[in-house]
Design brief:
30% helix, transferase, serine/threonine-protein kinase, cAMP-dependent protein kinase activity, 317 residues, Ser/Thr_kinase_AS
């Protein structure tokens, strides 16, 4: 369980990444010598950009989840200017970086990654949480080669439908674009896009112009490269489908329709969850504090202005 921490418990080190409201830094827990990824969010910017509900939702979800394929929250704290989330430090960096270096994956490798996404979504959906932002940038590779899903900023607890427009252009589901209300089925659409991207080296609706991407999504005509695995092609077609009554993951069989698809024939789902299957790629990691799989970021010199206690929406965390 995540606990409230004191900032003095941490030695804050170099930056691992940057985001809309702040950055993620490597930090060392002084009492245990454990290294964590410290997400530092600027309260001033969150309030100014009207993102308080999003951040509250992310925090509530992080406190609830606990799964081997999700980045888990270890502790949290705040001061007058910032919120701090101490998360598991996943040393292999983003899947995006790895995919960019290899261009595309072989069938077995893609299958191992896709299967982990299925189990991530199964777990979240059982808790009525939709993730809504699957993309290679939000998947980290652990030292054992397994994936960890991170960044729950767009995740939301939903019993039925929600109407927020959110997501990444290439991955966004048509029902979000059409603003008809959406639910868990959007995550299965993104799995289909992700599967295509792993095997083809490019997303199926790629374009320089986001509006052109949206038009392609609504037409939903996918061209497959000639060497694209036949069974994988079949699964993508069952996932990347506009009609929700035909989209796998959203039918009566739920995620079992995906797990029982012929592309996954003979796949050992229980060994995957136990992490006893060998991963084809394991990142090079030399020590518990090794950050070489992350980019170099200059440290920010600008301080976030404090928020008056009377205006601080996070004080009761």
């Amino acid at each position: 369980m995540a606990r409230r921490m004191q900032l003095s418990e941490l030695e804050i080190l170099q930056t691992l990444g940057t985001g809309s409201f702040g950055r993620v830094k490597l930090a060392r827990m002084k009492s245990t010598n454990r290294f964590v990824a410290l997400k530092i969010l600027k309260k001033f910017d969150i309030v100014k950009l009207k993102q308080v509900d999003h951040v509250n939702s992310e925090f509530a979800i992080l406190r609830q989840i606990n799964h081997p394929f999700l980045v888990n929250l270890i502790g949290y704290t705040q001061d007058e200017s910032y919120l701090y989330f101490a998360l598991e430090f996943i040393q292999g960096g983003e899947l995006f970086t790895y995919l960019r270096s290899v261009i595309k994956l072989d069938n077995n490798h893609a299958k191992l990654y896709a299967a982990q996404i299925v189990q991530m979504f199964e777990y979240l959906h059982r808790m009525n949480i939709i993730y809504r932002d699957l993309k290679p940038e939000n998947l980290l590779i652990a030292a054992d080669g397994y994936l960890k899903l991170t960044d729950f900023g767009f995740a939301k607890r939903v019993e039925g439908r929600t109407y927020t427009l959110c997501g990444t252009p290439e991955y966004i589901a048509p029902e979000i674009l059409l603003n008809k209300g959406h639910g868990k089925a959007v995550d299965w659409w993104t799995l289909g896009i992700f599967l295509y991207e792993m095997l083809a080296g490019i997303d199926p609706f790629s374009d320089e112009d986001p509006m052109a991407i949206y038009q392609k999504i609504l037409k939903c005509k996918i061209k497959f490269p000639r060497n694209f695995d036949t069974d994988a092609r079949s699964l993508v077609k069952h996932l990347v489908v506009i009609d929700l009554s035909k989209r796998y993951g959203n039918l009566k069989g739920g995620s079992n329709d995906i797990k029982n698809h012929r592309w996954f024939s003979g796949f050992d789902w229980s060994r995957l969850l136990l992490k006893s299957l060998d991963m084809p790629y394991k990142p090079r990691v030399s020590s518990p504090s090794d950050t070489t799989n992350f980019g170099n970021y200059p440290d920010s010199a600008t301080l976030s202005p404090p928020i008056r206690a009377s205006d601080d929406p996070f004080l009761d965390w």
